[in-house]
Amino acid sequence: MKSNKILIVEDELLIAKTISIILENEGYETIYGITKYEDAVNYVLNNVVDLVLIDIQLKGILDGVDLGNYLLKMNTIPFVYITSNTDDITINRVKDTRPHGFISKPFKSIDILATVEIVLNNFSHIKIDNFRHETDTVYNEEPFILKKVVEYINENISRKITIDELADLTKWSRNHFILVFKKYINQSPYNYILIKRIEKAKAEIRANDFI
Description:
Blueprint: E1 5-9, H1 13-24, E2 29-34, H2 37-46, E3 51-54, H3 64-74, E4 79-83, H4 88-96, E5 101-104, H5 109-132, H6 142-155, H7 163-170, H8 174-185, H9 189-209
Parallel strand pairs: 1-2, 1-3, 3-4, 4-5
Helix pairs in contact: 5-6, 7-8
């Protein structure tokens, strides 16, 4: 099961519920029913959120692009627009907020799932890089080494990977490796490998469905 929590900010509750079902069927935790800028800001300030999906057309004066701009300045949560607004003026406003993704309506389930998976994966690597540059006075090599381990797992996910094998890559003890992995990835190496294998299997099934 995935542990990521995704906030859906959408003024049409039927669409929000549809997105929620698509994601929860894949094991994500979702929150929907938030339709205003102010309510979305309040939620992210008081709750842990891993990703925000934003419709540009929201209830109230401020819209989804305003929310994207707020999240850009906050710089701790990735966000993706899901909208039917694709005119030049809107697109130019969207680009200024540097979103992590953009999905046009009407969408397919695969559009939602693929974008969410890619954004969360990319942002996890960004977090590792940020940890790496956390201090100016002391060089911390742990995030750099761990990023290589994550890349190794992703490249070899089709075969058996042991914790000892990964620990050997880092030159750390098994226990130290597990502690460092949990610190930066927020889950154990075993769970990370398991989730990646499940995601790969589901992606293959979905790909076969389109053949």
